[in-house]
# Entry
Amino acid sequence: MLAVRSEDGCEERAAAAWLVMLQNLMVSHRMLSFACVAVLPMLAVGVSSQTFPGTKRTPPTLRVFLLAGQSNMEGQAVVDLDHKQHYNGGRGTLQHVMANALDKQRYEHLRGKDGKWTKRSDVVVWYRARGEQMKVGELSIGYAVYDDLHHFGPELQFGHVVGEHFADPVLLIKTAWGGKSLAKDFRPPSAEGETGPYYTRMVSEYQEAIAAVAKTFPQFAKHKPELSGFVWFQGWNDMCDKEATAAYEANLVHLIHDVRRDLGAPKLPIVVAETGNADHEIFRKAQRLGVEHPDVAGPAVFVPTRAFLRKPGDSPNTGHGHHWFGNAESYFLIGDAMGRAMLPLLQ
# Structure
């Protein structure tokens, strides 16, 4: 200890005084340190919660899928019609399939406990049937080409699969017209020849639907639409033409390229479903090779569907092989396969 002498020579009292001063200083220092530790987190919270002028919050996302093709994408599955002559007594309708399925749990999400067909609020549909009648709303049965609630298409189960995958809401945009070929009607711009009018309509209807999201679906007015995938289900008309069959692989490569370019999504996930109801192995192989072509960069997958074809006698439309005989199980399984094939591409 430092020795200090006072004028009166009392060294001990001076040393004690210095010791008290030092102790007081140490206590004050500890108190100041504690105060800083306590106050700084409060200041940090205040700064982090403050909204600074000019800053913007990121809007929530609306996941968008474009579904395109011809009549089978329009939707030909029968829900509940059971006329003995015209619908084979209801065999193969959705109602019949659900009642007789061994795995009833697979379909239980389609109908509520009240017996009504369910509607999914987090998945919505935009579809101009035959280019005329607008069909918009929550995912359910009825988004088919007919003006009724007795039909559906692949969009039904596809929407449920992707809807379960995303925390974000989903918008399905359907652009489909019956009896149309890829060789002529949907002909992509990069293929030689005149661009198909239905390719142009497909792109324009997609753009129209996106532009009208806030008005059509006001619940998602503050969401930012984000194109997440493209699904193609088409082929019957090309299969019926020898030249169109030979050109299908190349035309499909052009279609994938042009859709990605014209929709501004160079790495857009693509799902192409097989025309599995056709007894034409050469054509179905051309569909697969088009998707697997080395010029198709980015995520794309071919979905086999041949296993989903059911017998005419077990279906409502016994004479409509080009429409999968209207069998609801076929369309349900096709939509399910499309959705499950899309999910890995979204990673």
Remarks:
- The chain is about 40% helix and 15% strand.
- Residues 1-22, 25-51 have pLDDT under 50 and may be disordered.
- The first strand starts at residue 61 and ends at 69.
- The chain has two domains: 1-51, 61-345.
